[in-house]
Amino acid sequence: MTIAAPVITILIVGIMYKSLQTLRKKARVNLTALQTYEMETDALTNGNEDLSAFSNVYANVNGNGMRDLSATVEQSDFHTGTRDEMSEREDPREESSIFLTDDILKDNHSHIKLISEIKMHELHTSIVANGSIFKEEFALLPVGEHHACCVGKEQDNMSKNRYKTIFPCPKNSTMTDFWKMVWQENVTQIVMLTNLMENGKIKCNQYWPEGTYDEFYSDIKISKFEEKHFAFYVIRKFTMTHSEEFRIVTQYHYTKWPDHSTPDPLSLVVFHSHVLRTRTEESEAPTIVHCSAGIGRTGTYIAFDALCKEGKSKGTINVAGYIKVMRSCRMNMVQTYEQYKAIYLALTEEFKAPVHTKSIIAFVESMKHFFGEDSSDHVIFQKEFKSLSDIKPAYNEGDFRDALLHTSFLEENAFIVTKYPSEDGAVDFLRMLIDYESDTVICMDPLAEIESSTSWLPEPLLIKLVGLYSLQHEGGSEIDVKVTNVKILDERESTHSIKIVQPTGLLTSIEDTACLRSLVSYAIHIPTENPVTIVSKDGASLCGVFCAVFNCIQQINMDDSVDVFTTVRQLQTRRPEFCSTLDEYTLVYKSVKDFIETTSEHVYSNL
């Protein structure tokens, strides 16, 4: 059997890594000090293994014959002693060790037809057609211990286990062992899928230094030299020094995995893409993946990662088959049906249209001929736009909301997107600004062209009464954009100050994007953590263009890279009407191109 290279991941398990010498001596098959997945991806499809040879014997059976699998590690309270030595020591849903036979399986699940391999181009239709079968398929997977689990249960190792029978991420007593493992295995990437605290419970102890301080773990020094915050994750970079040798380790910390739930599939795809994109090409070192218990979120991420590679190399995937392989190495990987379903959904998003982030140099090079007179260049935009239209969520009028929160590249809920209020809706509009503490309103049109704006926009030296609110004009400015300062007073005389920002010209011109870029630039440099309100005539036209250009510029400034297609795609998951015409989509590209070419700090602008 050929082992696929490079190693997919390291999973933090067992006794939590004792010493380097002990690690090497006690490398066992399952639940040992260190477990390295060197799984042959061929195991997913080769051999035509009969997945019906595995099942669960359920202590409690509900009405449809399937056990309720909704409980997760995070759903139980494990605080039964001191926070470090005894916290979260009880297994969240402890199972008896079950060794299954073909007879048991035939008696219990012979009626279930398992889905084995799925062709990638049929993945979406297969999910739609077989949704109910996936739940039964998940229930057939083996649970509990199927191999001897000895090392982690030794008396001198028990204090290093976060849970009684599941041995996951770092605790205070295991941090030195953790960093020794990182050094021993030449690890350069750590994927962290839990927050330190969730719902008042410790999920993982902080194993890295804060600020500019160094931390020593035995004779290993850890220093943090970079930390970047994105909307859904944080990337930290550390130098790791031992015996006058130093290495760089990058941690990818997904911070928005909902407790008791699963992340947005496309957001997980984008995160995974960032991990792969920044991996050192020559590195064959494994990647550490951990959450809290090391089986639910960790298993979901590992399965998605491996099945992406499998789908790309062979054109088919076998989710149940791969999880069976994972559980033969570590029990209960992918803990809930929701996580199992999330793997399918993320794979669907990945293979609909992979994330394709370009360096700025590559982007500028690709844009050289796109806005010339050659009609063949326009075909590329048309094909890309058609692909975007084919995969965006279906829209119907019942889905419409007057206002929606949207995420920027760096912040969750950075925008409130809505339409200009009517005279009857002006009070609700002002109340929304106050309730969400939004202190900036960005208009997609000069307000002189919006008749209804007179119902809520005060004139200089005059006070405008709107319901119980009094609005007072407090001056403004007009350079690249027109800014009007307005103070809102409610019936209790509480004040809320806002800036109303208008373009000085039309934003629809592909030939001249200066007005649009000025509006975006103003919004990017607003010193506020509150959501920015974006308004247009229908709450969609030009709003999507504005948000897309805003997000792309944030990506350029943060990463020196850009992906217009994925940026628009993410926005369309919330509002499919965004960038719904080829002209608007082209306007996004042209604005990003013009931004790069007119920003002197980018040396590649002259390429």
TrEMBL record:
Domain of life: Eukaryota
Tyrosine specific protein phosphatases domain sequence ranges: 266-341
Occurrences of domain Tyrosine-protein phosphatase (ranges): 103-350, 388-595
Biased composition (Basic and acidic residues): 76-93
Region (Disordered) residue spans: 72-93
Membrane-spanning ranges: none
Molecular functions per Gene Ontology: protein tyrosine phosphatase activity
SUPFAM superfamilies: (Phosphotyrosine protein) phosphatases II (SSF52799)
Protein's name in the database: Receptor-type tyrosine-protein phosphatase alpha-like
Organism, scientific name: Crassostrea virginica
Phylogenetic lineage: Eukaryota, Metazoa, Spiralia, Lophotrochozoa, Mollusca
